[in-house]
Amino acid sequence: MRMIKFCKVISLLVLIQSCVSSKEMVKTSPDDSIENSMVLALEWQEQHPIYSLDPTDWTNGAYYTGVVKAHQATNNQVFLAALKNMGHKNEWKTCFRYYHADDIAISYSYLYINKLRKHLVDLKPTDNFISDHLYKDHEWKQGSDEGDKKILWWWCDALFMAPPVLVEYANLKNDRIYLDSMHQYYMQTYQLLYDKKEHLFARDLRFKWTGKDTDLKEKNGKKIFWSRGNGWVIAGLALIIEGMPVGYEHRPFYVNLFQEMASKIKETQPKDGLWRTSLLSPESFNHGEVSGSGFFTFALAWGVNNGLLDKETYLPTINKAWKALRSCQQENGKIGWVQNIGASPEPASKDSWQNFGTGAYLLAGSEVLKLK
Amino acid sequence: MRMIKFCKVISLLVLIQSCVSSKEMVKTSPDDSIENSMVLALEWQEQHPIYSLDPTDWTNGAYYTGVVKAHQATNNQVFLAALKNMGHKNEWKTCFRYYHADDIAISYSYLYINKLRKHLVDLKPTDNFISDHLYKDHEWKQGSDEGDKKILWWWCDALFMAPPVLVEYANLKNDRIYLDSMHQYYMQTYQLLYDKKEHLFARDLRFKWTGKDTDLKEKNGKKIFWSRGNGWVIAGLALIIEGMPVGYEHRPFYVNLFQEMASKIKETQPKDGLWRTSLLSPESFNHGEVSGSGFFTFALAWGVNNGLLDKETYLPTINKAWKALRSCQQENGKIGWVQNIGASPEPASKDSWQNFGTGAYLLAGSEVLKLK
Amino acid sequence: MRMIKFCKVISLLVLIQSCVSSKEMVKTSPDDSIENSMVLALEWQEQHPIYSLDPTDWTNGAYYTGVVKAHQATNNQVFLAALKNMGHKNEWKTCFRYYHADDIAISYSYLYINKLRKHLVDLKPTDNFISDHLYKDHEWKQGSDEGDKKILWWWCDALFMAPPVLVEYANLKNDRIYLDSMHQYYMQTYQLLYDKKEHLFARDLRFKWTGKDTDLKEKNGKKIFWSRGNGWVIAGLALIIEGMPVGYEHRPFYVNLFQEMASKIKETQPKDGLWRTSLLSPESFNHGEVSGSGFFTFALAWGVNNGLLDKETYLPTINKAWKALRSCQQENGKIGWVQNIGASPEPASKDSWQNFGTGAYLLAGSEVLKLK
């Protein structure tokens, strides 16, 4: 190339070439909008359905919660169509363990569709589940030998799975009894797992320090706080606060908790924007992970958009995180770098994916969209 | 390139470049055939399932009628596989309102599959629906206070939804009672909604002029004739005439109506080939719309292919329309510029889509294919 | 650009252009790994579901057997997710003809998932089918006027459909009665259809020579041995031997049969690597076919990987075949050149596809992977 000397022909060639290129550009240039990225993520995920126990399980529950928020933010019918298809295929059922918070997460989507289209959604299974979950007897409510399982929501993920559904259900029924029940159980979990010094949640009692030598800790001596686990909590908080009546007496508790956690999460963000799976020991698995980071990005952006977090303070964090999340999306729409199903920090990889990871991505996008 | 004189290096470079390019061309050059465009449209639509009331509803009814015609025209098993999958997933059910023409449209596909594969399709739901639709008592048949709703098919879309199914059903049962019933109800709708001066159908009684000041009209003072509404009618006519025994006594009525409408539709075609959503007021929403245009293109091409319309007269109209329809297909196969679900002229957009829009595209392609 | 006279600018342009290109290269360069090719094949097939009788039929049975092996070989969750979705959608049912080997093929997948995830799979339908298939009275077991149909597995395809399932079922139940029953029926088919001189199976009695003038033969005077038919047998043998306890007394029979057939199959490989649909009359339809060739490639590679076939002898055959199979995969993942559903040699085409063809491709890939 250094040897090029004459050029008319060349410039002609270049011209032709650039015409061709620009035409191709028009045809193939990707639509770089956030919305388009979200559509691509949905399309890939819809083409790769996956579940753990059943298509009504928490993995789809979390994924379709992302789809709900994507639809709310964009009004793009591709999201609503996916929601309705899922509901129809699932016959509007919840998953089957009435005592398990995971198994009602899917109803967040049903309740949303029901708001848009009357007489389409069969809410009976949701009614039954919530009634049983809150008010039917079960060993957990009596206490059991497994110390950490004597309360209904004994692991922090549960705070994403059930409470936002109960808030929406209270709105539907216009009955604060569901809010009060939610709050009662939330407080139990909060007391059990929230670390008031670190402002993060232990995933479950295994990770709570008791002062004994047997306390689990990272190699660096710090406590083990799981990124996704805390992602569940703070994303759930955003959903709860958003749905809760402004005047509800316990709302300040949730707002305060949200702000406390947000501050800590901001603080733990690695330079490249994506949180590691072990928040206080980023070196354990030193790469970004998308599900936790997606939930954090959603929560922080939601906080800014709703006046609960200071825009100037949080915007750099959010922008860095979103940019990094985008780079985890492959050309075909797939969202990689998602830690597999688990209950503590584990590594992810470029190609590891789960539907709830896509859900976290959609949640993040749905609020980052509104920042512009 | 003839003028290149110096530049061995350059020509070498160019050569390398063009080799790469031409190899890429081979790999990525699209198959520009009509059939391939139809396959891409189907693939995108299958990946984006959507319904209004239920997957057995009229939106899928119209879409899969397009898939039937695509299969008939191409014998490409990709279309038949999609039909069978739909039927299996729907358990060969109709939609659930026996008195509503929309809810039997899906049976056009079931009856088609049944012709190809004996003992596969469960025709019971179709039997029951047709029996109830035609012969069970219902308020509409008694007349009601809502003037326009005292007949079974009180809106023009219905003439696509039910009559072609009844014609096929008459053939299956070899019983002209279904033809006669169809004709009886068709005539009621014809009398109610056909404008004998304009040779177009009012969508429903709201749009029929009575000579009062309250008559609905466009800004330009003309009557409101909805593109898709008339698309339903004339595409339905093609399906009816095609299926009807040649010697059926009322066939000439349908042929005549088809020819009258075809002439008017040709006349209203805008220069760029695609009809606007308000046929007599193209300036209301001045862009082409795909569902109406697709139905028109199908009907006109079918008329030419079956000797009911003069080829020389109609070919320019059809070619212009098809070329324009093609330009509404996005690279991923999606058919855009489809007016949303509605009941009167409304705008569309580059990205607005519906399954029945894809159906209209497939119908058009299936007949344009045969013109070559 | 018209004014460019010197070349610094141009070389800069060219440089920019090549940067762009190389960036695009990075983005779009395909992942040429075997695993990626298998994932693409699965993705295309999942987006083009197809069945003959029912989604539980042998076509899906054979396809998902390929998906099982793909998952075993790669541990890529995309394969397991597809299996679980299929099982859930099929409600873990077999197809419905208890006396028909085809209708239990799908249970190979159910039994595999059941090994990985306890309490997920409902094995009742499989239990019932196997019990009826083996031990319930039926005309075939009594003999019938149709000479070839007086035994349970009267056509060679059956040796892929049922025996591998019975072997896995024997393992699950830890009960050799299922092995013994399998062996009993296998021997009947072997006696009926195996040509001990040619070391190939007649598809069914129609193709077995009796010495009469009416014996079916190819134009070249040779016997008709169907590629896919023998593919079913030898791929089935690999699955049987793999699953069968090492000490099972009849194992040597299967090993010997496998080796005999492998040798003959190697011998009949055309130069371009892909077998023709009529093994001894390649000139009948002189192009490669993927389903038979895929099953052969799977079986031969499995034999090498498991020490039953000599690596040096068979590797060239396998490599040539795999390379040619790869060339039948289209850019979008689709596997072409698959003979349609049939029962004797027929032609295929570049675009002809079936789910079991994709299954054969996945089987082949799953063993070729391990050769490296």
Condensed summary:
The structure is a homotrimer. Chain A has helices at about 10-30, 35-45, 60-75, 75-90, 105-115, 125-135, 140, 160, 165-175, 175-195, 225-245, 250-265, 290-305, 310-325, 355-370; strands at about 195, 200.
Describe the structure.
Chains A, B, C: One of its GO terms (biological process) is carbohydrate metabolic process. Chains A, B, C: InterPro entries: 6-hairpin_glycosidase_sf, 6hp_glycosidase-like_sf, Glyco_hydro_88, PolySaccharide_Degr_Enz. Chains A, B, C: Pfam families: Glyco_hydro_88 (PF07470). Chains A, B, C: One of its GO terms (molecular function) is hydrolase activity. Chains A, B, C: This is Glycoside hydrolase family 88 protein. The structure is a homotrimer of 372-residue chains. Chain A has 15 helices and 2 strands. Helices cover 55% and strands 1% of the residues of chain A. With 372 residues, the first copy, chain A, is mostly helical. Chain A has one domain: Glycosyltransferase. The longest helix of chain A is centred in the first third of the chain and has 21 residues. The two termini of chain A are 43 Å apart. Chain A has a two-stranded antiparallel sheet with strand order 1-2. Chains A and C meet through helix 1 of A and helix 1 and helix 4 of C.
Could you list some keywords that capture this structure?
homotrimer; mainly alpha; Glycosyltransferase; disordered N terminus; 6-hairpin_glycosidase_sf (chains A, B, C); 372 residues; hydrolase activity (chains A, B, C); hydrolase (chains A, B, C); Glyco_hydro_88 (chains A, B, C); two-stranded antiparallel sheet; 15 helices; 6hp_glycosidase-like_sf (chains A, B, C)
